[in-house]
Amino acid sequence: MMQEINKENLLKTLSRVEDPDFKKDLVSLKMIDDIEVEPGKISFTVVLTTMACPLKDKIKQDCVEAIKQDWGNDYNINISFDSRITSNRKEAKDMLPNVKNIIAVASGKGGVGKSTIAVNLAISMAKTGAKVGLIDADIYGPSIPLMMGLKGKRPKVQKIEDKHYILPIEQYGVKCLSIGFLIDEKQAVVWRGPMVSSALKQFVTDCIWGDLDYLILDLPPGTGDIHLTLVQTIPVTGAVIVTTPQEVAIADARKAIGMFQMPNINVPIIGIAENMSYFTPAELPDKKYYLFGKDGGRKTAEEYEVPFLGQIPIEEKLCEAGDQGKPSVLYGNEIVRKSFINLAANAERFIAIRNASLSATKAVEINQ
Fold first, then answer.
1. pTM recorded for the entire structure
2. How many CB atoms lie within 10 A of CB 44?
3. Is residue 366 within 8 Å of 359, Cβ to Cβ?
4. What is the pairing mode between strands 156-160 and 163-167?
5. Structure letter (DSSP) for residue 220
6. How far apart are CA 197 and CA 139, in angstroms?
7. Among 209, 202, 156, which residue's Cα sits nearest to residue 179?
8. Residue 180 carries which DSSP code?
9. What is the pLDDT of residues 8-42, one digit of tens each?
10. Phi/psi at 158 (nearest 5 deg)?
């Protein structure tokens, strides 16, 4: 007589199902929750690292096949999904202890759409239910206020135990902070390096961010003071490198990758995002015109053996939408919206893999 199924032996069955990313079984990864076993019915929840996981259909299929193999075809199997965003930060004494993941968005040169990627990445993550913050770390050329539709806004200040803290401004589900909120838009920031570094530190230490799953930092182009201040001040989970397909941008993207991979910095590369990849006319939705070359970002990812997060096409009204504070992931055409959503899903996926496979993040010490 076949043994009666219960929670215990159902878990034994599911312990044979492997997560395709982590290469470990779902039970040891503590991804199975809310098990209910009734006559003729089995239900449970698979807890993913992101609801945008591209492999959840395969995980579901593998679970069903394992159950049928062990317990036959007489059960109605109901599998639901939930998400639990991971963090590899271990030390609560670190700055921003309530922030699970700190992601730097960087590029080797200007003009590749780094801020566009940062803004739409943050909003895409927030759309999945994640708690997201966005710091405009480009002190000399802040663009977040304009791109997020917050031009002219000023943050509030809260006093706690005789110290004043900045409250980030929330827009599109994302908490935002920029030097552009604190100065007149026509005012040039003529500061030396130490002043810029001090301002960035204040964005971290003197701001009430609360609980966040992801804090996105939109860095200035290049490899300079702000980048070093960042990795010395806070434990960066990883970096997203933004480039366009042409070689002049790729050459500088290699420098940005090289900086983060320096032995005394050693910040993991979450992946490469390729912007302005191709142009698709509205009247020819199946046609792609590669105006700046083809697959430069993908080939660079292969060269450095880092993930390729995706391609963002050129949209005719992309600049106009950014200037109006209407990010493309919300207001762009369907092709562009899907591209940003897929890019964010890949970023969340590889952040989770990074957290599961690499050592804990901590601020680095750099001897200058």
1. 0.89
2. 23
3. no
4. antiparallel
5. P
6. 9
7. 202
8. G
9. 999 999 999 999 988 899 999 999 999 999 989 99
10. -120, 135
